[in-house]
Amino acid sequence: MTREEVVKLIEESQLTDEKKRELLNIIIESGLTPELKLALMESFDDSLLSALGDNGVDVAGNEDLKKADEEYAAKADEANTAYEATMAEVETGIKDAQTEANKALDDLQAQVIKDKIAE
């Protein structure tokens, strides 16, 4: 999601105005970071649990909800692991590309110097 999409999601959510300001301040100060992702997840989870409790749903004692939460947590961990692996690959690719670009630039500069000497 883009920064604008995340801001719109927050603004249109049913979170409290205080929580919205807190999340928007994180975006302003830090941008779209893993910390923001965690804060968003916690905020929406808290809001959902509060709404369920307000409507008489016993979240703490519901085995189906506990199982669903465990499955969600496992899938979230899997997704996070995949994300981290992909980011590591991207970083390696960037380093390799940067090394190749630096070598190509060095070769080009050496050729320019050789050409100037040969004149």
Please give the count of helices: 4
Helix and strand composition category: mainly alpha
- How far apart are the termini? 55 Å
Summed over residues and divided by their number, the pLDDT gives a mean of 87
Tell me the overall shape.
elongated
User: Which stretches are poorly predicted, pLDDT < 50 over at least 5 residues?
Assistant: none
Q: How large is the radius of gyration?
A: 24 Å
Strand content: under 5%
User: What is the string of helix and strand elements?
Assistant: HHHH
Number of strands: 0
Largest sheet: none
Q: What is the percent of helical residues? A: over 70%
Word description of this protein:
- By secondary structure, the protein is mainly alpha-helical.
- The chain is elongated, with a radius of gyration of 24 Å.
- It is built from 4 helices and no strands.
Please render the helix and strand layout as text.
Layout: H1 3-12, H2 17-30, H3 34-54, H4 63-118
Features:
single chain; 119 residues; mainly alpha; elongated
In a nutshell, what does this entry contain?
This protein is mainly alpha-helical and 119 residues long. It is built from four helices and no strands.
